[in-house]
Automatic annotation (TrEMBL):
GO terms for cellular component: plasma membrane. This is Cd(2+)-exporting ATPase. Its EC number is 7.2.2.21. The chain crosses the membrane at residues 75-92, 98-116, 300-320, 332-353, 633-652, 658-681. Keywords: ATP-binding, Cadmium, Cell membrane, Hydrolase, Ion transport, Membrane, Metal-binding, Nucleotide-binding, Phosphoprotein, Translocase, Transmembrane, Transmembrane helix, Transport. NCBIfam families: ATPase-IB1_Cu, ATPase-IB2_Cd, ATPase-IB_hvy, ATPase_P-type. InterPro entries: ATPase_P-typ_cyto_dom_N, ATPase_P-typ_P_site, ATPase_P-typ_TM_dom_sf, ATPase_P-typ_transduc_dom_A_sf, ATPase_P-type_domA, Cation_Transport_ATPase_IB, HAD-like_sf, HAD_sf. One of its GO terms (molecular function) is ATP hydrolysis activity. It is found in: Cell membrane. Residues 182-281 form the P-type ATPase A domain. Belongs to the cation transport ATPase (P-type) (TC 3.A.3) family. Type IB subfamily.
């Protein structure tokens, strides 16, 4: 399939009709035309000249065919001229006489000639859409001598058409702002020389120079330099993050002040920014069940309205003696009320606005259907390690039977030679207290239990309780150890040749924001928060108690996590949040899978939503935005149908006029467009 950008689409209903015509061409099966993104996808073998001809019937064209004079939308100027002519004709009617009809016809033609031409073609082809309804209404109004009303209908319809296009264009522009984050070139360092290359030509392993104020071209690792980096475009994090040698950086983020040498770890096409742009643009093309329902409804709704209008025109005069002029007038008004534009627009602008706002916040939603489902979630299941916790052990307790600083110095010296995560946690603890340590002498590893070594000529042992004889552990030491065990912590003992000198309690560190996020989720209406983990129960219960989740299930293998998700899905709409390869099956089975941005590729690819920040902070806001989108869509549909229903009811006493009909249709369209665009608006906080 080949993709083209299309401009000039007048409405969502018209885009759907054009799509159906293109699909009827040879090799046109599977073609899609999205009003919300302005993208056309067609088979490469389709006849493009015929596609262009079909688009031209609606005044639309491919961007590659765009001419300089077509860049400005002439509709606003034509409508403005029509309004001027109408006002002049209205004021001078008594002086001009019957010749004023010519002015009304000219004013109508300026605003409605495109609609009129398209409508006539549709009538010939027996295709019924908005243009068909408006054309019949205009012909009928002129036929019964309602010149003023016909002109007002054409003018208001022109304004409506302009505002409708403006609303969708505003939503598209908001998305296009993301595209401006894409760097175009990079400075590659090779053999001490620098050269400027396109970011598309960057290869893994290339070293690039990023000067202050420049964008980092692709994901990589800092190998030289120190600076603060603004990652707002990728993660939504507003505060700059300090970067130094060995730290990873995102492509598209901005280097603030220092000079950085970055080694590229991903080609641009595989970078985080590229994936965000690709997936958000792709997400616009997916239609939610509600959108599909509305489109099917509109397909049958328009012919139904024409039948209703026919009854209104014929039954009252034939059965109740109502004058034909009045009945025809009422029937024409019914046709205008029946335009389905507001109904079709009720969903796409809101979904596009919601996905764009979430993307700006660093939350990538891979489709409107996932955004809609996210807004209905009432139960959230979390993996523990790497999601609620940092997935990195740290020392939580130091129980010293000698001076604590001395205990840390000896322990860090012994562990400094080890790459084991528990050893590194103890070394990190010593660094936090600015305690200096040195390499041990005569190191000896005890597999499965610990290490021995000399510090300042004295022999020490560090490890788990298997490195000691049970008689070496006094009652107090055993009591302290049992307390740490009951809290689900791993214990490391340090001893010299005669005595145990102290204990270290080590646990996976809970993320700083986890407790606040869980509390916020409960506050916004998430009924149940569940933690799923492979850890043993005491550790899991300790973390669950610390962060405030409502349920915890421990000692689960990946298959059991899936079973738990399936059980939860029987009672509620469930989201699963995880970061590891072992979480991917559960992410796939949940109604909505949510992956951490720095999780494994398998988790990110499987998930429906990706939190680009490496924490849960944006999750409550993402759910709140999704819920707002759902509320907006429901309200849009209710208002669109209600205004039409009220207008149609006015036909019973004969109060429905062409003016009221077009204002009700126009009002509904403007309302759904503005309400949907408000999703993009965010209060500024100091």
């Amino acid at each position: 399939m080949k993709e083209y950008q299309v401009k000039g689409l007048t409405c969502a209903n018209c885009a759907r009709a054009l799509e159906e015509q293109i699909q009827s061409l040879p090799y046109g099966e599977g073609a899609t035309l999205s009003y919300s993104s302005g993208k056309l996808r067609v088979n490469e073998r389709v006849n493009l000249e015929k596609v262009r001809a079909i688009l031209a019937t609606d005044g639309a064209y491919m961007v590659e065919d765009e001419l300089p004079q077509r860049k400005r939308n002439p509709l606003l100027y034509l409508v403005g001229t029509s309004i001027f002519l109408f006002v002049m004709a209205f004021l001078l009617e008594r002086f001009i006489g019957n010749e004023v009809v010519i002015v009304y016809i000219i004013a109508t033609a300026l605003s409605g000639y495109k609609t009129f031409i398209k409508g006539l073609k549709n009538i010939v082809r027996f295709r019924f859409n908005m243009d068909t309804l408006m054309t019949i209404a205009l012909i009928g109004a002129f036929g019964i001598g309602e010149w003023k009303e016909a002109t007002v209908v054409a003018i208001l319809f022109g304004i409506n058409e302009y505002l409708e296009g403006l609303g969708m264009e505003r939503a598209r522009r908001s998305l296009d702002m993301l595209l401006k984050q894409v760097p175009k070139e990079a400075i590659v360092i090779c053999d001490g020389q620098t050269r400027v290359v396109s970011i598309d030509s960057l290869q893994v392993g290339d070293v690039v120079l990023v000067r202050p104020g420049e964008k980092i071209p692709s994901d990589g690792v800092v190998i030289q330099g120190k600076s603060s980096v603004n990652e707002a475009a990728i993660t939504g994090e507003s505060m700059p993050i300090e970067k130094e040698t060995g730290m990873s950086v995102y492509g598209g983020s901005v280097n603030n002040e220092g000079m950085l040498h970055v080694q590229i770890t991903k080609q641009y096409k595989d970078s985080s920014l590229s994936k965000i742009l690709h997936l958000v643009q792709e997400a616009q093309e997916t239609k939610t069940p509600l959108e599909l329902l509305i489109q099917r409804f509109a397909k049958y709704y328009t012919p139904f309205i024409m039948v209703v209008a026919l009854f209104v025109m014929t039954i009252p005069p034939l059965s109740f003696g109502v004058p034909w002029h009045d009945a025809l007038y009422q029937g024409l008004a019914v046709l205008i009320v029946g335009c389905p534009c507001a109904l079709i627009l009720s969903s796409p602008i809101a979904l596009l606005a919601g996905m764009t706002r979430n993307a700006k916040k660093g939350v990538l939603v891979k489709g409107g259907v996932h955004l809609e489902t996210l807004g209905r979630v009432r139960t959230i299941a979390f993996d523990k390690t790497g999601t609620i916790t940092k997935g990195k052990p740290h020392v939580t307790d130091v129980i010293a039977y000698i001076d604590e600083n001395e205990l840390l110095r000896i322990a860090a010296s012994l562990e400094s030679a080890s790459s084991h995560p528990l050893a590194q946690a103890i070394v990190q603890k010593a660094k936090q207290h600015d305690i200096s340590y040195k390499q041990p002498e005569q190191m000896e590893t005890r597999t499965g239990s610990g290490i021995e070594g000399k510090i300042d000529g004295k022999r020490y042992r560090i490890g788990n309780e298997r490195i000691f004889d049970q008689q070496d552990l006094s009652e107090q030491i055993q009591k302290d150890a049992e307390k740490l065990k009951s809290e689900g912590k791993t214990i490391v003992f340090l001893a010299d040749e005669q005595h145990v000198l102290g204990l270290f309690g080590i646990a996976d560190e809970v993320r700083e924001e986890s407790k606040a996020v869980i509390k916020q989720l409960h506050r916004i209406g998430i009924r149940r928060t569940v933690m799923l983990t492979g850890d043993h129960e005491k550790t899991a219960e300790q973390v669950a108690k610390q962060v405030g989740v409502t349920d915890v299930f421990a000692q689960l293998v990946p298959e059991q996590k899936v079973e738990k998700i399936k059980q939860l899905m029987k009672d509620d709409i469930v989201a699963m949040v995880g970061d590891g390869m072992n979480d991917a099956p559960a992410l796939a089975h949940a109604h909505v899978g949510i992956a951490m941005g720095k999780g494994t590729d398998s988790a990110i690819e499987t998930a429906d939503v990706v939190l680009m920040q490496d924490h849960l902070g944006k999750l409550p806001e993402a759910i709140a935005i999704a819920r707002r989108v759902n509320r907006t869509i429901r309200l849009n549909i209710a208002v669109a149908l209600s205004l039409k229903a009220v207008a149609l009811l006015l036909t019973i006493p004969g109060w429905l006029t062409l003016w009221i009909a077009i204002l009700s249709d126009m009002g509904a369209t403007i309302f759904v467009s503005v309400l949907s665009l408000l999703i993009l608006w965010e209060k500024r906080t100091r």
